[in-house]
Amino acid sequence: MNTIRKAKLLQKRRWRIRKKVNGTSVRPRLCVRFSSQHIYAQAVNDDAGTTIAFLSSLDAELRKQKLKANIAGAKVLGTAFAEKAKAAGISSVVFDRGGARYHGKVKVFADAAREGGLAF
User: Cα 45 to chain center, whole Å?
Assistant: First the structure.
């Protein structure tokens, strides 16, 4: 019963964020998701409904490093995602934290992406 309530509250936070954060082709939305074991990040053009760049800890190169969904893994994935986004022609994004608080691993991911060259 408590987990259902928490899931509903998380979904409400996601909807509240998505009302304000919208990605375009010039400035896509960078959404990050932390599961219990893995990290997923993607740049989305909401106008066209397409994903421009995607990277997760399940990627072949990153899987060799055995990344976990913690602060160290978030730093590595943030830097790697910034490189992939720059290769796809993305220089600035709008950050979507996916209902999570902006601290800990979410903040480390965002800072690593900024250091990698993304502007937001």
Answer: 14
